[in-house]
Amino acid sequence: MTMTASSPVRKIFVVGCPRSGTTVIQALLAERPDVLSFGETNYMLRLLGHFDRWLQDDRSAAKKWRRRLRLARGKTHGDMRRCLDNAFKAYDDVPGLRRKLSGRGYIREFCRILDAMALERGCSCWVEKTPDHLAYLDVLEKEVPEAHFLHVLRKGEDVMASVLDGQLRYSRHNVFAGSLPYWVRRWRSMSGSPAGRDTPFCPMNACSRRRSACVSFCRPCPDLPSRSPLIREQG
User: Fold this and answer.
1) How far is CA 133 from the centre of its chain?
2) CA 66 to CA 102: how far, in whole Å?
3) DSSP assignment, residue 135?
4) Is 128 helix (H, G, I), strand (E, B) or coil?
5) Where are the beta strands (DSSP E) in 44-178?
6) Which of 53, 84, 120, 186 has the greatest number of C-beta atoms within 10 Å?
7) Which of 11, 197, 226 has the alpha carbon at shortest distance from 119?
C-alpha cells in the first residue's frame, strides 16, 4: 500500500497497569508490516504530570491538567523535545517538534509526528504503548477522538508476581521501585473501567492461552488494519 500525507493514519494506544501484558498485546498488533510500533514514550506523563495524585484519586490532578492543557509552561517545549529525543533515539528521521502555546497543541504535535513517521515507512497504523497513559485516557479521548485504546487487564496476583520478579531482575535500574501495598493500589487504580467508557479490554489470562482470544476484544476497533493477525481467527 502506498501511503501519502493525506492518508488517514490509524492511532492505537495500549494502556494498563505495568506488568499486565501490554508489551505482548503491542507485539501482536505490530506483527503486520503496515503497523509501526513505538515503545514507551511517557509523553503524557511529561506533558501533564501529577500521575501520583491521580493514583491517589486526588481530584486536584484533573484541575492541574486542565491548566496545562490551556497554557503550556515556559519549559514545556524543552521538556517535550527531550522526551521525544529519548523515546526515538533509535530513529534518525524524526520530524521536529513545533513550539505550541497550549498542552492541547503539544498533544496534536505528538500525533502529527507519529503519523509522519508511520507514513514515511508506508504504514497505515501506529501503536504507542505507555501503560501509565491510562491515567490520561479522558484527555486523550477528547483531544484525539479518532484514536483507539486497548486497556490490558491481568489478574492481580500475576501482576504482583511479575512486579516482584522485575524488582529482582532490574533492581539496579530501579524500574519497579515501590512497596507491595503501593503496587496493589496501583493495580486497583488501573484495573477498573470508568462509568460510561466503552474502551475495549484485553484480559491477558485469555490472550496468553490462545492467541485468537484477542480477536473478540479487538473487534470494537473497526479501523484496525485489515487482515491483521489480531482480527483473523487462528486455527
Assistant:
1) 5
2) 10
3) G
4) strand
5) 125-129, 148-153
6) 84
7) 11
Other CB atoms within a 10 A radius of the CB of residue 144 amount to: 16
Ordered mean pLDDT values, 10 residues apiece, the chain (235 residues): 61 92 87 90 96 92 96 95 95 93 97 96 94 94 92 88 85 77 86 57 51 48 46 31
Residues 6 or more apart from 14 whose CB is under 8 A from it? 22, 25, 26, 29, 127, 128, 129, 131, 149, 150, 152
pTM for the structure as a whole? 0.82
Q: Give the Cα separation of 100 and 109 in Å (integer).
A: 8
Question: DSSP secondary-structure letter at 234?
Answer: -
C-alpha cell at 76: 514545556
Integer angstrom CA distances of residue 230 from 24, 54, 72: 12, 32, 38
Contact indicator for 12, 149 with CB cutoff of 8 Å = yes
CA atoms of 187 and 209, how far apart (whole Å): 22
Element (H, E) at 107: helix 103-120
Helix, strand, or coil here: 91?
coil
Residue 118 grid coordinates:
508511520
Closest CA relative to residue 25, chosen from 147, 165, 167, 128: 128
